[in-house]
UniProtKB/TrEMBL annotation:
Organism listed in the record: Lentzea miocenica
Role: Molecular chaperone. Has ATPase activity.
Similarity section: Belongs to the heat shock protein 90 family.
Protein name according to UniProt: Chaperone protein HtpG
Keywords, in A-Z order: ATP-binding, Chaperone, Cytoplasm, Nucleotide-binding, Stress response
Quaternary structure and interacting proteins, as annotated: Homodimer.
Region named C: 541-617
HAMAP family reported in the protein's UniProt record: HSP90
Pfam family, one: HATPase_c_3
Membrane spanning residue stretches: none
Length: 617
């Protein structure tokens, strides 16, 4: 026998579970039955892949045994089991993403005295630890089909556990809980009572594919939830099924059912979350839905059925005509899978669209949770780009409180306005205070404020919405002028032509052109990109990822009505060419700083400013 210490995070979690007060301790049995069901699914799948595995898959089941005399409860399955290494890795440590956040939430709720801590159970696939809410000691015996010996694991939930080999362990896993004494004040019932066991299984695990037996009697209906008529399924049953497959303790925001008949039949039961998964933006995040064939579990997280930008969608797809012995490589080439994927995506997007129109508060909640992920589809899913654009919402200058859809923006466009104006930036404050916004604000044009990192990328790949081109107010030429104003601007440009040419030469290391601006009203200058240049923010993102880009020269625009520019023009006309080089550099530096840019040589800029200030005394 070997005694080992828990990983520090696992030890913290165990202590919190043992000593915290939970509103509903019944959830431990749901977690153990769910783990047993997963083990049976994995064995069935592995038996298809590994023809050398000598196992009986005709009687896969879960057994619950209670012993009132010994005050123990055992959950046993004849599933895949675990090796010794698996036991140490999966139970002795917590190698799941989000553990730190879980512990933080658990401690916060504990210190706050709330009774909702149990709502966190199940979120990170650590259901086994919930056993210590009701047990003083837990004994686990398990055997993997190819292993010569079984493994016994035991712990009282303190700092250590013991692990030992077992010669005659049956295939599968049994978890025996040495229960704490029942206590009505602590809401701790007698979990050896058959009636209590049936109640919990019926409430939480009635949809489990495999038979759950108690005293020789099967106590769950086993009927696949997606195969039952919608009129016979309650919202609570949907919620419990969603919790089972997603490890999210919240109820889903929306339930989506599909049934395709004809030459290719399948059923789908999908869910939109009320809260984004914690790993939504992690590189190794799981995505996809569960794939079944004729009620037989085939694959978890089937990415081939759901694109990455819809990775927050959870659910089940049950196909009637696929081979049971299917691999990811086969799925990638399968026409039926591709057809299902297209239909599932359209159904999800149409469901979000329906939420948008019929339940705007729920839509706003969903968008607030998963909007940035959904916008990734504007880059990757050209076939559904218009449908994605329709369900997107954006901040804009129209309101500081509510978001707007593109359709709503178009409905508010001014007479004669041809473009949908937008600006990307780090924050709303930075965008609203940008010099690029001055003329549009003065003339009453609405501007979309795009501050998600993904916005920097998709705006260049989406040319238009509803026939209206998208136009960045910080790139290219922004045409806001009347014919009369254009005529006056042309005259000004001719008047300033020599100054603009000289400044272009003086600043040629940093800018590709100097021209007069139509977008400035109060600032002296701004820096803009050409229509097809990448933005400075996107350039920073590439550099942060280790991708060095060639230097991108931008355009310096001057406001001819600003006193600084007027003074610069007069001095230039008076022949003060040589002394104005530093002034031109200062104007360029001020324009960079105004948009939140970075100076190439801050110390030189400070010296130029100090020299200018000194001359005023």
């Amino acid at each position: 026998m070997e005694t080992l210490e828990f990983q520090s995070e696992a030890r913290q979690l165990l202590q919190l579970m043992i000593h915290s007060i939970y509103s509903n301790k019944d959830t431990f049995l749901r977690e153990l039955v769910s783990n047993a069901s997963d083990a049976l699914d994995k064995l069935r799948l592995e038996s298809f892949r590994d023809k050398d595995m000598q196992v009986d898959v005709d009687d896969l089941h879960i057994v619950i045994e209670s012993d009132p005399a010994e005050h123990t409860l055992t959950v046993r399955d004849n599933g895949i089991g675990m090796t010794r290494e698996d036991v140490v890795r999966l139970i002795g440590t917590i190698a799941k993403s989000g553990t730190a956040e879980f512990l933080k939430q658990l401690k916060e709720q504990q210190s706050g005295g709330t009774a909702a801590t149990s709502d966190l159970i199940g979120q990170f696939g650590i259901g086994f630890y919930s056993s210590f809410m009701v047990a003083d000691k837990v004994t686990l015996v398990t055997k993997y089909p190819h292993a010569e010996k079984g493994v016994r694991w035991e712990s009282s939930g303190e700092s250590t556990y013991t692990i030992d080999d077992v010669e005659d362990a049956p295939q599968g896993t049994s978890v025996t809980l040495h229960l704490k004494p029942s206590d009505d004040e602590d809401r701790l019932p007698d979990y050896t009572e058959p009636a209590k066991i049936r109640e919990i299984v019926k409430r939480y695990s009635d949809f489990i594919t495999w038979p759950v037996r108690l005293g020789g009697e099967e106590i769950n209906s086993r009927k696949a939830l997606w195969a039952r008529p919608a009129s016979e399924v309650t919202e609570e049953e949907y919620a419990e099924f969603y919790r089972h497959i997603s490890h999210d303790w919240n109820a889903p925001l929306e339930t989506i059912r599909m049934q395709a008949e004809g030459t290719f039949e399948y059923q789908a039961l999908l869910f939109l979350p009320a809260q984004a998964p914690l790993d939504l933006f992690m590189r190794d995040a799981k995505r996809g839905v569960q794939l079944y064939v004729k009620r037989v579990f085939i694959m978890d997280d089937c990415a081939e059925l759901m694109p990455e930008y819809l990775r927050f969608v959870k659910g089940v797809v049950d196909a009637a005509d696929l081979s049971l012995n299917v691999s990811r490589e086969i799925l990638q080439q399968d026409r039926q899978i591709q057809l299902m994927r297209r239909r599932l995506v359209k159904k999800v997007l149409s469901s979000i669209k329906s939420l948008q129109s019929s339940r705007p508060e729920d839509y706003a909640k969903l968008w607030g949770e998963v909007g940035p992920a959904l916008k990734e589809g504007l880059l990757s899913d050209h076939d559904n780009r218009d449908a994605i654009l329709e369900v997107c919402s954006f901040a804009s200058t129209h309101s500081t409180e509510s978001l707007t859809t593109l359709a709503e923006y178009v409905g508010r466009m001014k007479d004669g306005q041809e473009h949908i104006y937008f600006m990307t930036g780090d924050s709303r404050l930075a965008v609203e205070n940008s010099p690029h916004m001055e003329a549009l604000r003065a003339k009453g044009f609405e501007v979309l404020i795009l501050t998600d990192p993904i916005d920097e990328m998709w705006v260049d790949s989406v040319p238009a919405f509803d026939g209206k081109p998208l136009q960045s107010v910080a790139k290219g030429q922004v045409d806001l002028e009347t014919d009369e104003e254009k005529s006056a601007a042309a005259a000004k440009a001719e008047e300033f032509a020599d100054l603009l040419s000289w400044m272009g030469s003086s600043l040629e290391e940093n800018v590709k052109e100097v021209r007069l601006s139509t977008r400035l009203t109060t600032s002296p200058a701004c820096v803009v990109g050409d229509a097809h240049d990448i933005t400075p923010t996107l350039e920073k993102m590439y550099k942060a990822m280790g991708q060095e880009l060639p230097k991108i020269k931008r355009i310096l625009e001057l406001n001819p009505s600003h006193p600084l520019v007027e003074g610069l023009h007069k001095a230039f006309a008076d022949g003060e060419r040589e002394s104005l080089a530093d002034t031109a550099e200062l104007v360029y530096g001020l324009a960079l700083l105004a948009e939140g840019g970075e100076l190439a040589d801050p110390s030189r800029f400070v010296k130029l400013v100090a020299d200018r200030v000194q001359r005023t005394f």
